[in-house]
Amino acid sequence: MSLKSQEVSEVFDAAGFDIIIYETVGVGQIELDVMQASDTVVVVLVPESGDVVQMLKAGLMEIGNIFAINKADRPGANKFMTALKNILTNHNMDGEIWIPQVVNTIATENKGTKKMYNAIESHQTFIYKQGIQTQKMDERYKNCIIDLITGQYMNSFWNDQNMSRLNNELDKEYCKRESPHKLVNELMNL
């Protein structure tokens, strides 16, 4: 997720929106960025999502605060929910105080959405009481400052002189180029 997305969420927050929803697809760096930018993460799965153990290996268990099994009217939904709850409970052996909730939903029929909303509110109350929300806000603020400074520094660093020096090195045959460390030291001293 880009810094701009985080800034947009701050605008929404300042405008009085209590709930801001990010939607992503898959599990990758962007989803991890969203996790850091969010107070509560809901991972939406379907009964056909596959083996719960495979999800554990994929790192999904660390991402979600709440797991929604959408299309819960499909075959295997209850079995999937039971397996997921068992894995989450057993995965919590390190003593975390929040055990992710699992909610069945059927979005097309608006079923389970109230339970989902209640689970989100429950998690919000929990992180507020534990001081986790303040920690997350402080971490986001710090990361925003670091990202802005990094961006401004990079923009000023790559002036015409430094860019020209890098391009001169790129014009050389690969085996005749300066080592990256030596070139960085030179660029830092220009």
UniProtKB/TrEMBL annotation:
Molecular functions per Gene Ontology: GTP binding; hydrolase activity
Source species: marine metagenome
Annotated InterPro entries: GTPase/Isobutyryl-CoA_mutase, P-loop_NTPase
The UniProt record lists the keyword Metal-binding: no
Keyword line: Chaperone, GTP-binding, Hydrolase, Nucleotide-binding
Lineage: unclassified sequences, metagenomes, ecological metagenomes
One Pfam family here: MeaB
Protein name, entry field: Methylmalonyl Co-A mutase-associated GTPase MeaB
